Amino acid sequence: MPTLILHGGAGRIEEARTGAYERGLAAALAAGWGVLERGGEALDAVVAAVQSMEADPNAFNAGIGSSLTRDGTVECDACLVDGRDGSAGAVALVTRSASPIRLARAVLERTPHVLLAGVGADALEADPVDPDTLVTPHARAQLERWRERHGEAVGSAAEPTGSATVGAVALDAAGALAAATSTGGVIGQWPGRIGDAAVPGAGTYADGAVGVSCTGKGEAFLRAVTGKALAERLAAGATPGDALARALADVAAMGGSGGLIVALADGQLAWAFDTAHLALAWRTADAEHVSVTAEPGVTVRP
Ligand code: ASP
After folding, report:
1. In this structure, what CATH number is given to the domain that contains residue 277?
2. 194 in a structural domain
3. CB distance 152 to 53 below 8 Å
4. C-alpha–C-alpha distance, residues 270 and 212, integer Å
5. Does residue 90 form part of some domain?
6. What are the catalytic residues?
7. Which of 72, 173, 213, 236 keeps 20 to 30 A from 188, CA to CA?
8. Are 199 and 220 in contact (CB under 8 A)?
9. 65-110 pLDDT, tens per residue?
């Protein structure tokens, strides 16, 4: 039986934008589930779901509407992992793509590499866009607010803030897992900064038993190697609830907060977050859920 779980970021989601997030999540869930329902592969389902959220100009920090660097530019990261064989494709510092996850897939399928950054990644884009078309009024306003808070200190010790990264994890009818994450990074990040989303084993991971996509302060997830650490704990016999709680605790110990979504090969879904909200959607053969969730902690759905 296939399953699909999505996130649209952990953080604080303004009440006025909740509807836009839920509409965006519902559309992405339909896109991904459509693939699985037709007997399609988990890899195609997570790409379809993430592409839908990247294209949404009204919510999410990915593709169109990405968060801006301290210089006001867009630099996107994305990663795709195929749990069948651990193959992975990722891009970082992408500036001209409306769908960085599509580029991550191109790295996986068309290059001998795992992670391409900057000009090399941009060169894979068959349909490059003017970077300005990726910048929304909301992203500009968020950067302005961030600059007001941090003044001229931008880029020194000023702490970038994130939210609304998107991710998807799917289990297909053949029992394969795949995970995908796409993000504009964190508001006010230094140009050239790469977060956890782009790094297989950190913000995005899948193997034969589990798939995971993370959101939150990328530096902490990178240091905690969250995806791989979670998979190793599960392989060592931890329950999903314990493994997710440990994952969040490890991120907190590294000075970060955020959330993660998980699909297991046995059909269970799980999520955890320690921020104000998690934009969450999931679907199984007999149930479906879409919400901006405001109950932090760990949830496992058998
Ligand atoms: N994890 C992302 C990053 O650090 C940001 C986020 O999830 O909000 O780039």
Report:
1. 3.60.20.30
2. no
3. no
4. 9
5. yes
6. 165
7. 213
8. no
9. 999 999 999 999 999 999 999 999 999 999 999 999 999 999 999 9
